[in-house]
Write a structure and sequence with these properties.
Length: 207
C-alpha cells in the first residue's frame, strides 16, 4: 500500500506509533534524556525535541491546507529547525517529555480535522518535495525511525508490517545515490540481484 496516497491509513498507523513512543518515554529521568541516542551528536533529549518540532511542522502544513494556505514546515527554514532542537534538548526531563505529548496530541487533532474535510489541497508542496496529503506517511517515518534512534529498546524488528511494506521500496530507491564508490555500487547491485554476498566494506551514507 502506498501510504502517501492513503492519508487516512497513514494517520492511523502514525497515531499508533506515537502512542507506543509516548509510553516508552513516559518515565525517563534527567539522566536518561541527556544520555546519547543512537544518532551521532544527539542525546535522547535532542531526538524527543526533534519529534515534537516535527509534529508541529506537519500540523502547520496540514492546518494551512485546511485554510487554503500552502504553508511550509518551518517558517524560517532549516536554521529554525536546528536552533529549536538545540535549545529544547537541554531542558529537564519532565519538560522534554511533556513537549512531544502536547505536540502529538495537537497533530492528531489536525489529522482528524483533515480527515473530516477529505484532506483538502493535498497537492500543496509547502516548498518541499511531497504534497501535504503525504504528511501522515512522512510523519510515520519520523516516528518509527526515531523511536529506534532513541536507543531505548525499540528496534527495526518492531516496525509495523504496513510501514515496512511502504518505506522499504522508497529507501531502496535512494541506495544508488548513497553508495560512495563504483565498487560499492556494483557489489550492492549484485547482492540485490542474488549474485553474491554484500561486501563488509559496503556502506550507505546516512539517510
Amino acid at each position: 500500500m502506498d501510504l502517501e496516497s492513503n492519508p487516512d491509513r497513514a494517520s492511523q498507523l502514525c497515531s499508533d506509533g506515537q502512542a507506543r513512543l509516548l509510553r516508552r518515554v513516559a518515565q525517563l529521568s534527567n539522566t536518561d534524556v541527556q544520555a546519547p541516542s543512537l544518532l551521532p551528536g544527539w542525546t535522547v533529549g535532542h531526538v524527543l525535541t526533534h519529534l515534537a518540532r516535527n509534529a508541529d511542522a506537519h500540523a502547520r502544513r496540514l492546518s494551512g491546507s485546511l485554510r487554503g494556505h500552502d504553508a511550509p514546515k518551518y517558517a524560517h527554514g532549516q536554521e529554525q529547525r536546528r536552533r529549536e532542537i538545540e535549545d529544547g534538548a537541554v531542558r529537564q526531563a519532565e519538560e522534554i517529555i511533556a513537549d512531544p505529548r502536547s505536540s502529538l496530541s495537537n497533530l492528531e487533532e489536525v489529522f482528524a480535522q483533515c480527515a473530516a474535510a477529505g484532506w483538502p489541497n493535498g497537492h500543496f508542496l509547502g516548498g518541499g518535495d511531497y504534497g501535504v496529503a503525504a504528511c501522515p506517511a512522512h510523519r510515520l517515518r519520523e516516528v518509527e525511525m526515531h523511536h529506534v534512534d532513541l536507543g531505548l529498546g525499540y528496534t527495526s524488528l518492531d516496525w509495523p508490517d504496513e510501514y515496512v511494506a511502504w518505506d522499504l521500496p522508497v529507501l531502496l530507491a535512494t541506495a544508488a545515490d548513497r553508495l560512495g564508490t563504483s565498487r560499492e555500487r556494483r557489489l550492492f547491485m549484485a547482492w540485490l540481484a542474488g549474485r553474491g554476498p554484500l561486501g563488509v566494506e559496503t556502506t550507505l551514507a546516512a539517510w
